[in-house]
Amino acid sequence: MSVSKASKPLTLETLLPKIVLAPTTVAMLVCMYGFMLWTGALSFTKSRMLPQWEFVGWDQYARLFSNPRWDVALNNLLIFGVLFIAISLLIGLVLAIFLDQKIRGEGAIRTIYLYPMAVSFVVTGTAWKWILNPGLGLEKLMIDLGFENFEFRWLVEPDMAIYTIVIAAVWQSSGFVMAMFLAGLRGVDDSLIKAAQIDGASPFRAYWHVILPILRPVFFSAIVILSHIAIKSFDLVQALTGGGPGYSSDLPANFMYTFAFNRAQMGLGGASAMVMLMGVLAILVPYLYSELRGQRNGQ
Amino acid sequence: MASKTQFSAGRALIYAFLLIMALLYLTPLYVMIATSFKDIEEIRSGNLLALPQDPTLYAWIKAWSSACTGSECEGLAPFFMNSVKIVVPAVLLSTIIGALNGYVLAKWRFRGSEVLFGMLLFGCFIPFQVVLLPMARLLAELGLANTVTGLVLVHVVYGLAFTTLFFRNFYVSVPTELVKAAQLDGAGFFAIFRHIFLPVSLPIFVVTIIWQFTQIWNDFLFGVVYSGPGTQPITVALNNLVNTSVGGKEYNVDMAAAVIAALPTLLVYIFAGKYFVRGLTAGAVKG
Predict the structure, then answer these.
(1) A115 with B219: Cβ contact below 8 A
(2) Which of A48, A209, B53, B62 to pair with B12, CA 20 to 30 A apart?
(3) Could B157 and A31 be called an inter-chain contact, meaning their C-beta atoms sit closer than 8 Å?
């Protein structure tokens, strides 16, 4: 398909495409792949304040996995990831199915569901920090409404703080999942539902048995994107709980930042970053593999 | 008849559900705005959902010009300007370079260009934690640590994967025959770009610029790692403002500050939402 093959002689004109791509190629090779290797190498050294190329094997990883704070961060990622993904998928799917019923004012409603996506996680965190504030926030509202013994102190309870992050993250991202499912539903032939209903299936069964299987690719994409957001989550924790109380609501990205930049533990920070990269790859590689194979078969 | 009423009762339930959910999604924004117009006394005595009884601009003025964001107390204004200084060049550069990259990868493929594209695409996914430390070293070597220029550079480098992807996917659909015909007429690489590709590129430029603007304005990670006291972007300043405890907590100032930080991207969303959503689904790989 390439057009450049037409011109053979080596002139400036034939070199131009390569010259144009050169800066990006260099930046990519150095700042993505080179840096990845650099961080990988660093994670096998005893570097603290400054890089120090004395290799210590897997020591940093051993230190990492025996660090209780990393343990908490990984546990939190599991809780946060599972709940965030499951709830966002559920809300996104239900909203999309309901919005797909030829709703009046659909555009306006869709806009409302999606606007949180436009604001930064820091703003989201700040807003929810105030809303969930023990004392003056939701708690006071419910007491004013007549629920005199209502208590909501998750922000200051070490066991519960991570769930406030789930709430804020679902608020921010579920509209996006809705948009993905809605796009998927628009691609589904209406007559399929009608046919199922003529066969006597209830609307619920029609969706469950006919539509959901068709939406399977959307589920996959949404899960990949949401888990990617979950693994990279950093700003929201920083703004909403600051990782606290103590370090009870830390996620791996916050651990990495704290140890690499505040505690001058470069080797340990590098090791935690590499574990995060491996986590992303474990989700991504199978997904990309199936996507590419699907594309090839499709074409 | 019976099925008709059941049908409309069902629809009424759907509408009710959708509207309640819409209200729930709007509540945090309403709470932010309502709180920002209250004074501290009213915040203590009232509740989250109460309308401001005696609206005041006190919190907005303080958030903009005198709230403390750490050791200095100049409000968000200087940091808002920092963000503008970072966002404008970073968006323009990454978009222009992305357009040219996309043009090459769509229509001037050479041996290895597809591999290059694949490698670049992969860059959309990496958790930035794996590049944070070496990038800090590089910026220090270049003398760009804690500078606006350094932050622009970082945002351009890590934005290129996305901008290139957007333009490449858009330009692939321009017929290759057009390019060949123009070549026969003696048009060169840049002439073809200018006369055939640029004129049809407005939508993809809008999508890319909005995407990059939102990403960079909302960035916190690069901002907090690579900025110094005088060059912090607004997200970092907002976080500092909220977590600085000097005297009593002023939630109204926090909320005014949060709205100020959110306003530019919210306005873009309100006025160009269609393009924003298109970028979101095109850039869905990143989320």
Answers:
(1) no
(2) A209
(3) yes
CATH number 3.40.50.800 is the correct assignment for the domain at B77-282 = no
CATH number at A216 reads: 1.10.3720.10
Among B7, B8, B18, which would you mutate to test the A interface (most chain A Cβ atoms within 10 Å of its Cβ)? B18
The yes-or-no verdict on residue B143 having pLDDT over 90 is yes
State which residues form the domain around A291: 58-298
Between B82 and B40, the higher pLDDT residue = B82
Over residues A200-231, the pLDDT tens digits come to 777 777 788 888 888 888 888 888 889 888 98
Please tell me the distance in Å from A294's CA to the nearest CA on chain B.
16
Asked if B205 contacts B95 with a C-beta cutoff of 8 angstroms, the reply is: yes
Mean pLDDT score across all residues of chain B: 88
Rounded Cα gap, residues A76 and A240, in angstroms: 15
Please indicate whether, in this complex, the C-beta atoms of B133 and A269 are within 8 angstroms of each other.
yes
C-alpha–C-alpha distance, residues A120 and B70, integer Å: 21
User: What is the residue extent of each domain of chain B?
Assistant: 2-56, 77-282
Q: Nearest CB to B243: which of A39, A95, A242? A: A242
User: Which chain B residue is nearest to residue A262, measuring alpha carbons?
Assistant: B225
Consecutive H or E run containing A2: none
- Specify the number of domains making up chain A: 2
Query: Are A81 and A207 in a shared domain?
Result: yes
Task: Write down the pLDDT at residue A27.
Answer: 94
Query: Nearest-CA residue of chain B relative to A25?
Result: B116
More confident residue, B56 or A194: B56
List, for residues B58-102, the tens digit of each pLDDT value: 889 988 988 888 878 888 999 999 999 999 999 999 999 999 999
Q: What angle do CA B217, B26, A119 make, to 5 degrees?
A: 10
Residue A258 covered by a domain? yes
Cβ-defined contact of B109 to A4 (cutoff 8 Å): yes
Residues in chain A, overall count: 299
In a domain, A53, yes or no: no
Question: In the structure, what pLDDT confidence band is assigned to residue A141 with cuts at 50, 70 and 90?
Answer: confident
Same domain, A181 and A139: yes
The CA–CA distances, whole Å, from A273 to A259, B45, B165, B269 equal 11, 46, 25, 33
Do A130 and A27 share a domain, yes or no? no
Question: What is chain A's Cα-based Rg?
Answer: 24
Alpha carbon of A216: minimum distance to chain B alpha carbons (Å)? 16
Q: Which residue has the higher pLDDT, B261 or A283?
A: B261
Are A174 and A284 in the same domain? yes
Pair A20, A97 in one domain: no
Task: Name the residue among B103, B270, B281 with its Cβ closest to that of A183.
Answer: B281
Q: What interface predicted TM-score (ipTM) does this complex get?
A: 0.89
CA-wise closest residue to A31 among B285, B159, B69: B159
